[in-house]
Hints:
Blueprint: H1 2-19, E1 24-27, E2 33-38, E3 45-49, E4 52-58, E5 60-65, E6 68-72, E7 76-80, E8 84-92, E9 99-105, H2 108-116, E10 132-136, H3 139-150, H4 159-176, H5 180-185, H6 192-205, H7 213-220, H8 224-235, H9 239-257, H10 262-269, H11 274-285, H12 289-299
Antiparallel strand pairs: 1-2, 2-9, 3-8, 4-7, 4-9, 5-6, 5-8, 7-10
Helix pairs in contact: 1-3, 2-4, 3-4, 6-7, 9-10, 10-11
Amino acid sequence: MSDRLHEHQDELAKRIDRYSNTNGVHQTAIPSLFLIRESVVTEPIFRVSEPSFCIIVQGEKQVLLGQDRFRYGPGSYIVATVDLPVSGQVIQASSEAPYLALKLEFTSSEILEVLNHSHFPARPQKTTKRAMFVSQAEPSLLDAVVRLIRLLEDHSEDIPLLAPLFKKEILYKVLKGPHGMALEQATIAGSHTYRIRDVIEYIMNHSEQNFRVEDLADLANMSTASLHRHFKEVTAMSPIQFQKQLRLQEARRLLLSKSTDAADVAFQVGYESPSQFSREYSRMFGLPPREDIKRLRGMDH
């Protein structure tokens, strides 16, 4: 069993190493498949993680979601079942042994299609699960991942037909795994997670606007107390904290991409008080806006 795991991991490492000769995230000829390489320990990177499956074959990474810390290494995979604001940091990598990983993004309709063609035992839909989890990859799951990545080199003409089949197989194996219920719940209409997903989508599309928690509760068809409880169970934060993370991530992006004044950006992302913005920005990123951007720009040179 462990021999098969090592063989699969070795093959994945060699292929990812070959297809990604520079640091960063590399898109592939297979839609929604990305290869990731880093030869140094990285700064924490703040972003919104889309629904995705990511497996590490070399090195280590940690992801922070609210107060939750997920640390994973070779043979482990992490799944995000909904959009989540996170920070991720490669914590083990070198030029001799770079961090190597593979990310596969998916949609709820793809999960639903797998569920509709599978016969899983009935699982309780009212138990709310965290929308991110780490698990150890079984040999059969790695086998499907290896067959998917082989298409890049050996059988590129087979990608349109076979890639979707291998992707379904990977999703099926994750659904069958110990945390599969969390993935299922994010897809089944009527489950608490599904209703929280609608609230997440609303906050993401209106992050610069103030909202009433009562309106979010109506959107989820829940009481305000129930919304708070389930939102925190799914995302590890409250709706207000979730919105704050989105606003601050967007503010940092705007400050980096334009020569814009921090106070202007504060208003753009929805803050009414520049001093409150500066305080919360410093708390999240470790430095006030101007100093943080100056440091980040200096790192690029």
